[in-house]
Write a structure and sequence with these properties.
disordered C terminus; Na+/H+ antiporter like fold; Rossmann fold; mainly alpha; about 600 residues; 6-stranded parallel β-sheet; about 5% strand
Length: about 600
């Protein structure tokens, strides 16, 4: 019963604080940390059992390293090694000596300074990724740069864990060359086992229709790696990392990932709960100014270095600042290295607790800084830039929106030597087009002042390539009212969107997947026996009939009628199928009548 009560407290606190943190701080990590802190001895004292906390922490550290290994991409790291070393490597090589120097000035101890400097130089993993996912920026240049940096830092953390035994004062079997030779041999052996044992085993399960046994095989692989490492006296954190890496290197990674996904947040959350439970607020109470100054100092040092390096390489202020804020904190890798140093008697508890508070504080500060810059500072800067632009080139073509749709249009125009201007706020790395004589504005297309600042009065053809229906409608409405002579090409998401644009008087409308679907349909007709010419004729007929249907729906529809007749996309699709069949049967009967008339004439003659 004594163990059951703390578990209930942990679950209840998690259910309260994790959703709140996700809503207000855009991540779950801080929710777990705060829940653990409130339940620990420093606040409520509901959970004070050191043995339970250590067990939770041990399991949590293994879980974190396993998922770090599962997300690790050694091939990608090797392929992009030059760019990563030039960016991420340079960051660490500058930040780490600065932090080591500051720590040496404070503690006058080389070993302590080395441990603290390397640990604090590493950034969080889960927190930046959750922030970027919330802002839908994981796939743009900011997200990819962050992922590459975190991959490199994960590799550095693993190397540091391997090297930690060298720092111990006492003699150990892990001090000799044989220990490192065993690690290298184990790494090589595991990768060979992955290729010749693990992958064939997964393929065997797939061939035997036993996909449901993949979790069992995954667990077997992980436990086998841990057992081998334990026999060789290699740290269990390295075992967990390699176990995750081995499972990620199979062609069934997506299936394994689907199985692990429900447990990922809870398993890593357990680590942050344990860290929160073990946090002590006494250093903050005793020396509040020192702790707060250290938190801000850490964030400022890391942010300044990352901003300077990123801006020097990218020449993009917004991207560099967001990149720096995203990586300015320390995180789970720092917690792991610090806790490992304490367990190896390399760091005293009196020094560990203030450092853990500094890491925790830097993580608390990051979402706030990101929100302030993204929501408050950046809009004001964009307005100032919009007002100050006075050297706008007189490009006759504007493309609003530079996603996959707008990019194809831009490439085709560029191939013909046509100059154009692009406005988009979600593609900050697209400013390279200015090297080719075009113009790129990193601005919100829905803001009227940005259109004026970009020189819309010189525009002859404006292409609306954004995918948001509401923004597209508002933009089309504004352009039709204020620039009636402007030729307007608008991307429509679906038939209903096309109807709404027709209501505004927009004449040139392209449904976004229509052309590619027709091309594939034409090829399908060819594959089923039609000649190229006949397939082309049939597709052209279909296009004409579909346009007639679209216009019939447009002229006859009002909003209530649409809701009554087409309450869902499937209902409208059923209507289209029915009418397409009718048209096709009419055409076939007409063709048959024509053929019979021709036969009659031949017989008469």
């Amino acid at each position: 019963m004594s163990l059951l009560l703390p578990i209930i407290f942990l679950l209840a606190a998690t259910l309260i604080f994790v959703p709140l943190a996700k809503r207000y701080a855009a991540n779950t990590v801080l929710g777990y940390l705060i829940a653990g802190l409130l339940l620990g001895s420093s606040v409520s004292g509901l959970i004070e059992d050191p043995q339970l906390i250590n067990q939770l922490l041990h399991f949590g550290m293994i879980a974190v390293m396993f998922f770090v290994g599962f997300a690790f991409r050694p091939q990608q790291l090797w392929l992009e090694r030059r760019g990563i070393l030039k960016n991420s490597g340079l960051q660490l090589s500058i930040i780490t000596p600065i932090l080591i120097g500051v720590c040496f000035l404070l503690f006058n101890d080389v070993l302590t300074s080395l441990i603290l400097g390397f640990a604090l130089a590493l950034s969080a993993v889960a927190l930046p990724l959750q922030l970027l996912e919330k802002k839908q920026q994981l796939n743009n240049k900011l997200g990819q740069a962050t992922l590459a940096t975190l991959q490199f830092q994960a590799f550095v953390a693993v190397v540091l864990i391997v090297l930690f035994p060298l720092l111990e004062d006492t003699a150990s079997t892990r001090h000799g060359i044989a220990y490192f030779a065993a690690i290298i041999a184990t790494f090589s052996g595991l990768f060979l086992a992955s290729r010749y044992l693990v992958r064939p085993a997964f393929r065997f399960l797939a061939r035997k229709n036993s996909i449901h046994l993949i979790p069992v095989l995954s667990l077997l692989v992980l436990l086998s790696v841990i057992l081998i490492m334990d026999i060789l006296n290699i740290h269990m954190l390295i075992s967990a990392f390699l176990g995750g890496l081995l499972l990620a290197e199979t062609e069934f990674k997506s299936e394994v990932e689907r199985i692990l996904e429900p447990f990922k947040d809870a398993a890593t959350g357990l680590f942050f709960l344990a860290i929160g439970l073990g946090l002590s607020l006494h250093p903050l109470i005793q020396t509040p100014l020192l702790i707060i100054a250290s938190i801000f100092g850490l964030v400022v040092i890391k942010a300044a270095v990352v901003t300077a390096i990123s801006y020097y390489q990218q020449r993009h202020a917004k991207l560099s600042t967001l990149f720096a804020i995203t990586l300015a904190q320390s995180g789970e890798l720092s917690f792991i290295l610090l806790k490992l140093a304490e367990s190896e008697n390399l760091l005293t508890k009196d020094l560990l607790q203030p450092t853990l508070l500094i890491v925790f504080g830097s993580m608390l500060l990051t979402p706030l800084l990101y929100w302030l810059f993204d929501s408050k500072v950046l809009p004001k800067l964009q307005k100032q830039v919009a007002v100050q632009i006075d050297d706008v080139p007189q490009h006759p073509i504007f493309i609003l929106g530079f996603g996959r749709f707008g990019q194809v249009i831009a490439r085709a125009l560029h191939a013909q030597g046509k100059q154009f201007s692009v406005i988009d706020s979600n593609q900050p790395d697209a400013d390279f087009i200015e090297q080719y004589g075009h113009r790129f504005f990193d601005a919100d297309v829905t803001q009227v002042e940005n259109l004026r600042a970009a020189g819309i009065e010189y525009c002859k053809l404006l292409i609306v390539a954004i995918d948001d229906v509401e923004d597209s409608m508002n933009l089309a409405r504004h352009l039709r009212l204020n620039y009636p002579d402007l030729t307007l090409f608008v991307r429509a998401r679906d038939r209903h969107h096309a109807h709404l644009l027709n209501d505004l008087g927009v004449q040139h409308i392209w449904r976004e997947t229509y052309a590619s679907s027709l091309n594939m349909a034409q090829q399908a007709l060819i594959e089923t026996g039609l000649s190229v010419e006949d397939a082309h004729i049939q597709i052209e007929r279909f296009k004409q009939e579909d346009e007639k249907l679209l216009m019939q729906q447009h002229w006859s529809h009002d909003q209530q009628d649409v809701l009554e007749n087409y309450p869902s996309a499937i209902a409208e699709l059923e209507y289209l199928f029915e009418n397409t069949k009718t048209l096709r049967s009419d055409r076939l009967s007409n063709d048959q009548n024509t053929q019979s008339d021709a036969n009659s004439l031949n017989e008469t003659s």
